[in-house]
Amino acid sequence: MEPIQLTHEQVMEIIPHRDPMLLIDEASEYVPGDHIVATFYVDPARDIFRGHFPGDPVLPGVYSVESCAQASDLVLMRKAEYIGKTPLFLGINNVRFRKKIVPGDTMEIHARLASERPEKAIATCKCEAYTAGDLAVECEVTIAMR
After folding, report:
1. DSSP H or E stretch at residue 27
2. Minimal CA–CA distance to 90: which of 60, 120, 128?
3. Which of 8, 17, 35, 52 is catalytic?
4. Checking DSSP bridges between strand 87-97 and strand 4-6, what pairing results, if any?
5. pLDDT lower than 70: segments of the chain
6. What is the radius of gyration, based on Cα positions, of the chain?
C-alpha cells in the first residue's frame, strides 16, 4: 500500500482525542496497519509550562509518551478489524528519554506495528520521537482495541 498524508482534520476523524489532549497535528507518511510518521508542535502557550518548570519549561515525559500512543492508535484504527473500536492504552515498555522537548519544538513521531495478538485485539507499536532530527524519546506502546 502506498503511504498517504493526513491533515489535522483527517487525524481527528480517526482518533477520538481532542484538545487539550490531542497530541498529533498531521501525518506526512501513513500506511494503516503498518506505520506512521506524524508531527506535533509543542506550543509554548500550553498551560502545562506554567508549572513544568517555571523559568526552564520542558514538555512532561507523559506528553511525549502519549503522543507516541496516539500515533500508535492511528496505525491501528484504520485496520478493518478495528474500525469503530476505542483504543485503550494498555502498557508501555522500554521507555528512554534521550533529549529534552521544549516549547517551540516540533516532534516527529514514528510508530510501526511490532506485534499483534488479533484474537485479543491487542497490538504493540515501536515508537521513536525526534526533535530537530535528534532522537528524543523511544518506547514500545501496547494498545487494546475495545
Report:
1. strand 26-31
2. 120
3. 52
4. unpaired
5. none
6. 15
pLDDT at residue 120, rounded to an integer: 96
pLDDT score, position 55: 94
> pLDDT, tens digit, for every residue of 39-78?
999 999 999 999 999 999 999 999 999 999 999 999 999 9
pLDDT of residue 4: 94
> Is 52 assigned a catalytic role?
yes
C-alpha cell of 87?
483504543
Cα–Cα distance for residue pair 82/70, rounded to 1 Å? 15
Give me the pLDDT at residue 1, please: 82
Domains of the chain: 4-145 (3.10.129.10)
Calculate the alpha carbon distances from 125 to 13, 71, 78, 79, 91 in Å: 21, 9, 15, 14, 11
104: left (phi over 0), alpha (psi -120 to 50) or beta: left
- What are the residues whose beta carbons fall under 8 Å from the beta carbon of 67, sequence distance 6 or more? 23, 24, 38, 40, 107, 109, 129
Give the distance between the most distant pair of CA atoms in the chain. 49
Q: Collect all residues with Cβ–Cβ distance below 8 Å to 89 and sequence separation of at least 6.
A: 66, 69, 141, 143
